[in-house]
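Q: What would this chain look like folded?
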Amino acid sequence: MNDTFGIIVIGDEILNGRRQDRHFEAIGGILRQRGFGVAWLRILPDDPDYLTAELVRTMAEKRPVFCCGGIGATPDDHTRACAARAAGVSLGLHPDAVAEIEARFGEDAYPNRIRMAELPRGSAIIPNSYNRIPGFSINRHYFMPGFPDMAHPMATWVLDTHYAAGGHQEQQRAVLVRGITESSLMDLMEQLSERFPDAKLFSLPRLGAEFQIEMGFRGHGDLQAPIDALIAGLGDLGVTYDRLGD
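A: My prediction, written as structure tokens:
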């Protein structure tokens, strides 16, 4: 099972600055609590062709993805149709979604609200405890409303229902290097990257009165050998460092 998820946030209002994204921090936190990580974040416009192309690309990754926004019934909501196109299926009324929307709105579900029950064929619904208008999933993509009060409980339901076993939290080992530039450590970093390809080496400069670099490794495997090799290399160069907590 993949231990990282993608997050897609859809909406021109995010890109033009009229609203701030609240999904990355919240869904990322929900994932980390369960031992998962975030592989990437993409903020996409309300452009059907662009959105479809991106969904084709992300569905091909076989990585689980949370998608927030654009599943309503107004003309600027393209996500349901784009998801269907990306998955190579048509839209159709989903009986479970119809039942939820009719239970919530009765006769007022028609003629417009019921459009939100038009989902990609073969998809499954994601319950919405806020107002019973469901999201849906297809090809390990979990489509939810753009409203955080709806989307975040729905993301929790997805994880509790489909990924209850949890993931393997990424570990980190690092040191704080003092008084030397990154360029002076480039040879060492390249050697370590080649020697330990399964661990992710990182180097994060800290600007201030004294130049410092947070340097180390991240990964799901044993990081003791990589960090020991880094410390030995720093010692050979006479570089001052402090160990950092995980």
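DSSP finds eight helices and twelve strands in the chain.
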